[in-house]
Amino acid sequence: TLSDVILLENTNKGYNWNFSYEVRKPVSKGFFFSGSYSYGVAKTLMHGTSDQAASNWGNVYTTNSPNNVPMARSNFDPGHRANLTVGYDVRIWKGYKATVSMFYSGQSGRPFALTTNRDVNGDNRGTNDLLYLPASATEMSFNGGTYQDFTNFISVDSCLAGYLGKIIQRNACRGPWINTLDARLNLQLPFKTVKAEITLDVLNVLNLLN
Fold first, then answer.
1. How far apart are CA 46 and CA 61, in angstroms?
2. pLDDT value of residue 185
3. Between the CA of residue 177 and those of 27, 86, 172, what are the distances in Å?
4. What is the percentage of the chain residues whose pLDDT exceeds 70?
5. Minimal CA–CA distance to 76: which of 16, 157, 117?
6. What is the mean pLDDT of residues 87-108?
7. What Rg value do the Cα atoms of the chain yield, rounded?
8. Whether the Cβ atoms of residue 61 and residue 53 lie closer than 8 Å to each other
9. Cβ-proximal residues to 210 (8 Å cutoff; 6+ apart), any chain
10. Residue 94 in this model has a pLDDT that exceeds 80
11. Quick check: pTM over 0.85?
12. In whole angstroms, how far apart are CA 13 and each of 71, 72, 88, 130, 172?
């Protein structure tokens, strides 16, 4: 009469650390500059993001048994990140002042792996089995395409290409580097009794220019 009888225990496996450095130039003659860099590493067994034990146990990507998953890169592993902020004040006319500023953020892509929708390890969970990438056309049958089509797709990512003939590990690869550039034009109005301003924000300028 019982199902999903799950025993949860504490673990001492897993860790995270982060290094960051920042340089600032105070406002001088209307110019402001700030730049920072950070690098972090996070390793876990599982993330515990669900309020149900069955989900926390059954949704961990694994190459074998979900009862004994290896420590791997966390979904929230930060990797590299660089930020840059630049601002400049411009006097326009009779007390009108505008501030032009830009913010750049560059960061490592999110960790990912490939899974199969078949229950390969027999744990009655069909969404947590990491994918084996065949090393030759004789190891798997392909429908709607060929093994060469498959390898062409995999070879686009150098990380995935390194797992041909292997089972990909949890979060072994990362998405592409992410660049974001935002811009703002801030016009301060010359009111004495109240501070008022008009702003124009352009988010993701690089995509706008593409």
1. 9
2. 94
3. 31, 22, 15
4. 100
5. 16
6. 89
7. 25
8. no
9. none
10. no
11. no
12. 7, 10, 48, 21, 18
